[in-house]
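re: that complex we talked abt at group meeting.

here r the seqs, copy pasted straight from the sheet so there may be weird spacing, ignore it
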Amino acid sequence: MSFLFATPAGTPALTRTNESAWVQRHATSAVFSSREQMHSSFERREIGKIESPARGQRIRITHLGNQELPEWFVPVFESLEARWGWEIGWDGYDALPTDAKRVAELLNCLALAMPLSARAPTITPLADGGVQAEWHKGETVLEIVVPRDEPARFYFYGSEENREEAASFPDSLPLLRELIGRF
Amino acid sequence: MSVPHEAEDDKSILDEDRLLRRVRANQLVGVGASARPSSAVFKAEELSVNIESLMVQQGRPLADALEKYPEESLASVRADEVRKFPHPIVRDTAPPNDPAHGLVLGKKKDSFANAMVRCHQWIVPPQD
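got the structure back, here u go
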């Protein structure tokens, strides 16, 4: 399986056969579609593989773009590699295997939201096959959540001000960027 | 699972009862003494738990929940913390389930899952 993600922030990473569910679900897809025409000049390259030796499965990550990868990519990739849920019941209960399409969607979300040098989040699989990125500082937490069957969203809890914020992913993007900057 | 989502909260599970949930290494954030469960642990729509009072009635140590999963950790949340949210707690002990098995039902919001992280206590903390 191969998928794309976008970098730097705002760069579309779509083809008609590989568009992410996040883009499909939101009105901003028109923006990406118009930019898609520029992609013929973008370099497409494989930048990593995540393998399950026990199960003989391999996920290839492909990047579409002419610029260097953001600093956060390597730690995010390592987190994905270490924490991927491969088999049904990987959590000791009834979890579904991590869905590579949801991972691609999360990478696209991160590319859109994160400054190039932002602190990398930890990646954690969800029981429904989705995946989330999470930052922690004390009890303050920020999550970008990509469930299997719902649009991407983010959630923030600030312990000092006992403040919660939650929104669908492309909404409140400036707020999300500001929150990422806290970590 | 055979318990319908519209099931009513089982009031025989007392507020001070603890609900136990296994946590795998790939669901931990932080390391060492600061390690805690990711909120992802508490987001399953049918959240399986072991009910402390049932384990005590059955004469089982709480760590028995890890009998088949010795490399995992065991977290707990009190029933009254769960009941601050609209999620019924029910028994689900019919074989082949664990005789102390229960469920926290309903679609979970991120606010619920993170509240559970903030109030959790380790029964068996992560191994270094």
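couple things i noticed - Residues 34 and 126 of chain B are 10 Å apart (CA to CA). DSSP finds three helices and eight strands in chain B.
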